[in-house]
Amino acid sequence: MAINTLRKDSASSDSRELQFQAVRSARAFEEIANQIRAELAEGRLKVGSRLPAERTLAVQFGVSRNTLREALRSLEHAGLVRLQKGATGGAFISEGSGDVIAKGLLDLHHVGSITPEQLTEARIWMESVIVREACRRATADDLELLAQNVEETVRATEEGDFPRRAEANFEFHRILARMTNNPIMVIMMDGLMGVLARYVNSIGEYENSFVLPSRKRFLKHMREGDGDAAAAEMEASLKRLQKSYLSHANEDAQTNTKRRSGSRNES
Fold it and tell me: What SUPFAM superfamilies does its record include (predicted)?
C-alpha cells in the first residue's frame, strides 16, 4: 500500500513528518479518522495542531474532498477536531470537552439504557470523591469563586429566575470538579451536568429551598478544610435532590402512560 508523506504547516506545534496511507474501504471516512487518531496517540499531533488543507489531505488519503469532510466532521463530533471557517480557518486538534460524554449519556437516557435513578446515583458517588479532593486542594481563590457562585444563586432565587438559578447550581459543581485539578473529573462532571441540565429543564421549577442553607454549611466546612463534613453535607443535599427528581420522573411516566392508554382507547 502506498504511503503518502506530508509536513504540517507553520501553525503546527510539531514539525515532524506525518505519514498517512491511502484508503480503499467502503467506509473510508472511518479509516481516515482512525489514522488521525493514531497520529494523536503517537504524539505527532497535539492540541492546537492544524491539519493540512483539505485538498492536500484528500490527495494523501486518495479520497474525494466530500469523504474527507465526512471524516473531519466525525472527529469534530467526537470532540477531537475543531473546524474553523475563514482565511485563517482549517481543521485544528481540539483540547476536548465533556460534550461528547454528555451526548452519549443523553442518548442512553433517551433510549432507556440509563434511568434517572442511575444517573443521580452515579452523581452522588462521584461528587463524594470530588468534594474531598477539592477540599484538600482548595485555594483562597477557589473558595472565593464558590462563595460568589452561592451569592449568584441567592440573587437568581430572590428574582425568581429559574434558568439562571439552575445554571448557577450546575456551575457550582463544575467549579468543584475543576478544583480537583484532574481533567478526567472535569470532563465527567461536565458530561453529567449536561444530561442533568436537560433533565432539570424538562422538569421545570421544583422545590429546593433546602439547597441554599446546605450550600452555606458546605462552604463553611470547605473553608475549615473539613473534607469529610463537606462531603457528608453534599451527599445529604444530593440525596434530597435525587428524591425530588425521581418524584417528578415517576409523575411524568404515569402521565405518559395515561396518554398512551387514552390514545389507544380513542382509536
Answer: GntR ligand-binding domain-like (SSF48008), Winged helix' DNA-binding domain (SSF46785)
Class at the top of the CATH hierarchy for domain 99-249? mainly alpha
Q: How far is CA 15 from CA 82, 90, 95, in A?
A: 20, 18, 19
Query: How many residues are recorded in the chain?
Result: 267
Do 142 and 177 form a contact (C-beta atoms < 8 A)?
Answer: no
C-alpha cell at 191: 458530561
DSSP codes, 212-266? HHHHHHHHHHHHTT-HHHHHHHHHHHHHHHHHHHHHHHHHHHHHHHHHHHHHHHH
Backbone angles phi, psi at 5, to 5 degrees: -120, 140
Instruction: List Cβ neighbours of 212 (8 Å cut-off, separation of 6 or more).
Output: 150, 153, 154, 157
* pLDDT digit string, tens, across residues 3-18: 454 444 444 444 356 7
Distance CA 103, CA 92 (A): 21
What does the domain layout of the chain look like in residue ranges? Answer: 3-93, 99-249
pTM, entire model: 0.72
How far is 31 from 186, CA to CA, in rounded Å?
Answer: 30
In b/e form, how buried is each residue of 119-148, taking b as 16+ CB within 10 angstroms? Answer: bbeebbebbbebbbbbbeebeeebbebbee
Q: What single DSSP character describes residue 138?
A: -
Phi–psi pair at 82, nearest 5 degrees: -115, 125
